[in-house]
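Quick start: read one record
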Amino acid sequence: MATRLQNLKRLAIFVAMLVISLSVNAQTWYIYGEYTWSAPHPVGTFHEHHYQGEAVTIGGVEYTTIYVDSEVNGNYLDGAYRNDDNQVFYCKWNGSSYDDEVLLYDYDLEVGDFFHDDDDHPMQVTEVTTITDLNGVSRKKITFSFIGLTDVSEFWIEGVGSNRGFMHVGQWEADHDSEGEMYHLLCYHEDNNVIFVNPEYNDCDMPYAVEDNSKDTNVSIYPNPAKDVIKILNDKDLNITNIEILDLTGRTVLSTDKSSGINISELPEGQYFVKIYGTTTIVRKLFITK
């Protein structure tokens, strides 16, 4: 009996360490999507997040799985990726096995280089710059145009991926015509910290959130970063009914109905979301405690 209990204890410790190791190394991409298919298909929007899963061996090579948690299609395995120097390779999961490996990213590209140059509208690098992520790390930014298309572009952030989302390189179709899906990266998490927020949205939405009109409401938080107190600057006179502060797991850690002098002194240092409820909208903003 004692031996059996010891074995169960060892198993419990192993499982706990496995869960911890997966969560510590977790990478997550929060995505906002639009679908504009032709009738009789619907037109609408959706939220989903793509997250790193377990390791898997394909053809003797080790990859990391990527899962999608979608409010439309539920939770499913999308494929597996691996890094090789500054290149990222991907194997799509087709429901029963993995497809052949394809090159998903090449962060060594320079101005004038092509990517997917066998397509009808290949991507060509138009600019290479450097950005600093929210951890203070410098990352290469590669901006593309699509040959033969006007006013269509895409950018990659080294180690993060495309502004369309990690697996949606070259998703220009919905900008080009009235059919298809278009994905937009909202933000990228690494080790439970927000590393990058897409400047097009300046926000980091939680999965399955209701419609976010923060781009149309001039609402901001100050000071940010903050130590003891934050206030909500409400220039558009949004009728605020309630305010919640959430940690990066989505857990509510504070709730109040006042928008000035919100005491955050008891919150540990880190990154949080403030969720501002109005009569007809919900605004979400990221802030940092210090």
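Confidence is low (pLDDT under 50) at residues 1-25, 207-214.
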